[in-house]
Amino acid sequence: MELAIQQSPLNPPAAYLWQDPSTLLHTPVRIRIGGSFTYPPQILSRPSEQQPLLSSPRSSSTPPGFKKLVLVAGGVGINPLISILSHISTTRPQPEITLLYSLKDPNSKIQSGDTSQALFLDRIINLFSNQNDPLKGNIKLFLTTTGGPNNTNNISTNEITTKHLSIPFEKRRISLSDVSNAIGEHKDDVAVYICGVPSMTDQFVDGLTSPSPQGLGIDKCRVLCEKWW
């Protein structure tokens, strides 16, 4: 099991897990499995489609009740989404995936091509660019620069090029219109997962599920969210 934890001295669980590794090594930790932010979304899956907690690699399942999967991550909100992406890579059939990932870009290093500065990004790139069996879909980054000199003047295009994949990015936060554009014409056969700070998740969930013209009018069962503080 793997978990990324943001340094938060005032949050007791985070502060505990940010102790020196020598203090934590071999220390028992009790965990609890549960919640509704799971894949595939149980409310869209018929009983025969529901996945066991543990499944064999390359397991096959009946197509879920959606064709398009939109994943929206704010910062360490990428935690459950990398788990979902890793699971999808082992199952068949797969939905079409769009990942919108917003994060801070210290000193514009990510924009300059240093993908190691972004949590789990190298692993995500590998999942989408695996030459033998890549995930179907695309990634878009939303980068906000904080601290240090701004060196974006040396960046000629809003695209990060890796060995097997080019990733577009915007130098701003994700907006509701970005999520709407990712959904496109799939309002009736989409599953949307949103994980981030409450201000982001609340705004997006409300905008996606409110009746038109105020919102997109997507069925609430198709929009799942998980908040972190």
Q: Would you give an account of this structure?
A:
With about 230 residues, this protein is an alpha/beta fold. The chain contains six helices and nine strands. The chain has helices at about 10-15, 20-25, 80-90, 120-130, 175-185, 200-210; strands at about 60, 70-75, 90, 95-105, 135-145, 160, 165-170, 190-195, 225. The strands form two sheets. The protein has a seven-stranded mixed β-sheet with strand order 6-7-5-4-2-8-9, with helices on both faces. A two-stranded parallel sheet has the order 1-3. The chain is globular and about 55 Å long.
- Number of beta strands: 9
Structural class: alpha/beta
* CA(first)-CA(last) distance: 22 Å
Q: What is the H-and-E element order?
A: HHEEHEEHEEEHEHE
Mean pLDDT across residues: 86
Q: Low-confidence spans: pLDDT under 50, at least 5 residues?
A: 47-57, 148-156
Which word captures the global form? globular
Strand order of the largest sheet: 6-7-5-4-2-8-9
Helix count, DSSP H or I runs of 4 or more residues: 6
Q: Which percent bin holds the helix content?
A: 10-25%
- Give Rg in angstroms: 18 Å
In terms of DSSP E residues, the strand content is: 15-25%
The major pleated sheet works out as: 7 strands, mixed
